Amino acid sequence: MFQIRNVVCNYTLPLHIDLRKLALNSNNVTFDRGRGVLLKQKRKPNCYVKIYSSGKVYIVGCKSEADCMLAARTIARQVQKTMNKEKEVVRIRNYKVCNVLATCKMPFGIKIEEALLAQHYPAQSQYEPELSVGLVWRSQDPKATLRIHTTGSITVTGASSESDVMRSIEMIYPIVRKFRCAMRHRPELKHKRTTRKRPASSLVYGTSAKRAVVPGSGIIGNKMYFSDEDDIYDEDDLFDDED
């Protein structure tokens, strides 16, 4: 089953729109006078609307075609009231769904390496691991672009309707099923990484601890002694000389 992430549509209103007047009579709007465009954020349904003075309207961010049509009718009605065209007939013209973005998760991993899926279908697929982690599949009927990942995730873009998204997934499923593999997930660390503690310093409050003298020949500080001279050098005298 797929999930719709974004639906983009555009249409035209047959009248000139005073963007400044529309901005003063609306909320959640941003009027860019230099570019001649008004940006509006709707809450029900949640989407973004871009309105031009020529009557061109773009809607982005809807989760379904029904929400996109509802937002288009709401904006058209608001523009009609603001422009005092209530007695005239204002209809939506050239309504078109430009793009439908959807995602789908397969219950298995997919081998998209060049020696497997990309090599068997060179005309429809394009795999450039240096540029993108996924394989790009361009479908002609229905017209859509699919991005296939090794984890089994498929992203569909460029479709003109929800039915085209469903058809494209039904078309690609038997193909990717031939190259299925085990699920590819990043292994989780079961054990926490243990940090090594540094040994406690031998210096305590600026005083150095005395080193034990091992019987036999050796060096203490700047003095060398031998085993037959142990009775000559006293341990306390050696450490006093170091200080």
UniProtKB/TrEMBL annotation:
<dbReference type="GO" id="GO:0005634">
    <property type="term" value="C:nucleus"/>
</dbReference>
<keyword id="KW-0804">Transcription</keyword>
<keyword id="KW-0238">DNA-binding</keyword>
<dbReference type="GO" id="GO:0003677">
    <property type="term" value="F:DNA binding"/>
</dbReference>
<dbReference type="InterPro" id="IPR012295">
    <property type="entry name" value="TBP_dom_sf"/>
</dbReference>
<dbReference type="Pfam" id="PF00352">
    <property type="entry name" value="TBP"/>
</dbReference>
<keyword id="KW-0805">Transcription regulation</keyword>
<dbReference type="InterPro" id="IPR000814">
    <property type="entry name" value="TBP"/>
</dbReference>
<dbReference type="InterPro" id="IPR015445">
    <property type="entry name" value="TBP-like"/>
</dbReference>
<dbReference type="GO" id="GO:0006352">
    <property type="term" value="P:DNA-templated transcription initiation"/>
</dbReference>
<comment type="similarity">
    <text>Belongs to the TBP family.</text>
</comment>
<protein>
    <recommendedName>
        <fullName>TATA box-binding protein-like 1</fullName>
    </recommendedName>
</protein>
<keyword id="KW-0539">Nucleus</keyword>
